[in-house]
Every structure is written in structure tokens, then in C-alpha cells.
UniProtKB/TrEMBL annotation, chain A:
CDD domains registered for this protein in UniProt: STAS_anti-anti-sigma_factors
Nucleotide-binding listed as a keyword: no
STAS domain span: 3-113
Protein name: Anti-sigma F factor antagonist
GO process annotations (BP): sporulation resulting in formation of a cellular spore
UniProt KW keywords: Phosphoprotein, Sporulation
Automatic annotation (TrEMBL), chain B:
SUPFAM superfamilies: ATPase domain of HSP90 chaperone/DNA topoisomerase II/histidine kinase
Family: Belongs to the anti-sigma-factor family.
One Pfam family linked to the record: HATPase_c_2
Protein name: Anti-sigma F factor
Keywords from the named record: ATP-binding, Kinase, Nucleotide-binding, Serine/threonine-protein kinase, Sporulation, Transferase
Gene that this sequence comes from: spoIIAB
Length: 117, 153
């Protein structure tokens, strides 16, 4: 599959790094991987790191919004970081930045979330 | 470059099974065809995104993920303008106005964002849907490739 999911916990914050192409075909895989880890219980907040995401369409937006609802329902916060210009335009158009913050990199995202948590 | 050359026409047709693994095949193939116009990275990624949206719609909504369905894409280049059509012979769209509303989706259980049509409208210069319930949907989109225009002037 042309999409890799890498996950790492930083205390109660789950960092998810996506690389490759996030479309309808790969969306289920990403959703499953993330939900599995979130349900395991160590995760309060979520950082989605998109540095190496080469392609994303509205199926990817669906995945992001779905995880946002999940984290929010548990009282957590979610942020995105390291977004390339192409993906940025799509997120901006969808109004995503009205509901979650965007940071330049993982470090800033982590300190941003730690401040609000 | 002469006027005749500027209005030169080229086209291609692509047909494939309505399977999600063909979504990346479709957008990469269309992008390869369009690359003869020397598009910018942004233009190319816009075109890939709209192909992905239209093909995904055909698979999920047109054919209810039945891989027996067939999706047809045609791409035509006239001068510096690309015309794409994406067609299926699926179930069609009952209420087109509703389907075009940003964030509306008929399949919220699949976590669809409801942004497909909005993205296509935003990324292309012209966008037109014709659909008939029970017999299929056709999407026609046009975009002028600016980088080529700069070359002509």
C-alpha cells in the first residue's frame, strides 16, 4: 500500500506521521491503525504530522474529521503540523483550521497541546 | 509558436474497474497525459485531486463499491485548456443540488467529508454534473493551464 503510518506516544499525546498518498483506497487502513491505538487508552491528544504526505483528497479529510470527533468526544485536543502547500490548500478550503490549530513542526505542536492540556 | 499549433487537439480515453486501487492509477495516468502542457506543480496536483474525487464518487456512490462497475475518463487538450470527463453507469444522483452542498454526504457512516464537489468546483475553471437516477453520472470539468499561456505571450 502506498501509505505508511508511523505512531509514537509522547506522554499522553499520540503523534501520527503519515507518508505517501491518503485517498479512499488507503483511508480505511489509516483509520483502523489510528483507532486501534487510540482505543488502547494511552492517548488523550493527537498530533497529525503530514510532512511526507504527497497526496490527499476529500477521503483524507473524512479521516481527519472522524479522528477529531473521536478525540474531542474523549475530551482531548487535536492538531496538525508540517503540512505541505498542496495539502494545506485542501485543509484550508474545508475549514479545518477553524476547529484545530496548525503548527510548523511536531515540536511546536507538542508544546502547543501541552499548554492547553 | 503559430496559432494553429496553439489550438492543436489531443485526447485520450481510459476505462477501468470501479475498484479503489484504481484511484491512484487514474490520477497518475491523467497527470502524465496533461504533463505535455507543462503544468505547474499546483495545477498538476489540482488535476490529480479532482480526478481522485470524481472517480471515488463513481466507485462509492455510483456503484456502491461494486467492482463490476466501469469508470470512463476522457481527457482532451485543446490549446492550453484541459477538459476532463469522468463517467459511470451507476445509480445516479437523485438530488443534485443537495449533493453539491459543501459538507453534505449521503454516506456519513463511511466518514465521507462531503467535500468532493466543492473541491472539484474550486480547483477547476468550469464544472458541470449531469446525472440521471438509475442510469449514471457524468462530470465534465475544464481548466486552463496557465504555465503554457505564459509561454505563448
Amino acid at each position: 500500500m502506498n501509505l505508511q503510518v508511523e505512531m509514537e506516544h509522547h506522554r499522553n499525546i499520540l503523534i501520527v506521521r503519515l507518508s505517501g498518498e491518503l485517498d479512499h483506497h488507503t483511508a480505511d487502513h489509516v483509520r483502523m491503525k489510528m483507532d486501534e491505538t487510540i482505543q488502547r487508552g494511552l492517548t488523550d491528544h493527537l498530533v497529525l504530522s503530514l510532512k511526507n504526505l504527497q497526496f490527499m483528497d476529500s477521503s483524507g479529510l473524512g479521516v481527519i474529521l472522524g479522528r477529531y470527533k473521536l478525540i474531542k468526544a474523549k475530551g482531548g485536543k487535536m492538531a496538525v503540523c508540517d503540512v505541505n502547500p498542496t495539502v494545506y490548500r485542501l485543509l484550508d478550503m474545508s475549514g479545518l483550521f477553524k476547529i484545530m490549530p496548525i503548527y510548523d513542526n511536531e515540536g511546536h505542536a507538542l508544546s502547543g497541546l501541552e499548554v492547553v492540556s | 509558436m503559430s496559432k494553429e499549433k496553439a489550438m492543436e487537439r489531443n485526447f485520450m480515453t481510459l476505462q477501468f474497474a470501479a475498484k479503489s486501487e484504481n484511484e491512484s492509477f487514474a490520477r497518475v495516468t491523467v497527470a502524465a497525459f496533461i504533463s505535455q502542457l507543462d503544468p505547474t506543480m499546483d495545477e498538476l496536483s489540482d488535476l490529480k485531486t479532482v480526478v481522485s474525487e470524481a472517480v471515488t464518487n463513481s466507485i462509492i456512490h455510483g456503484y456502491d463499491s461494486d467492482p463490476e462497475g466501469i469508470v470512463t475518463i476522457t481527457a482532451e487538450i485543446v490549446g492550453d485548456t484541459v477538459t476532463l470527463t469522468v463517467e459511470d453507469r451507476g445509480r445516479g444522483i437523485e438530488d443534485l443540488e443537495l449533493a453539491k452542498q459543501p459538507l453534505y454526504t449521503s454516506k456519513p457512516e463511511l466518514e465521507r467529508s462531503g467535500m468532493g464537489f466543492t473541491i472539484m468546483e474550486n480547483f477547476m475553471d468550469e464544472f458541470e454534473v449531469s446525472s440521471e437516477p438509475g442510469s449514471g453520472t457524468s462530470i465534465k470539468m475544464k481548466k486552463r493551464i496557465e504555465s503554457k499561456k505564459a509561454l505563448y505571450n
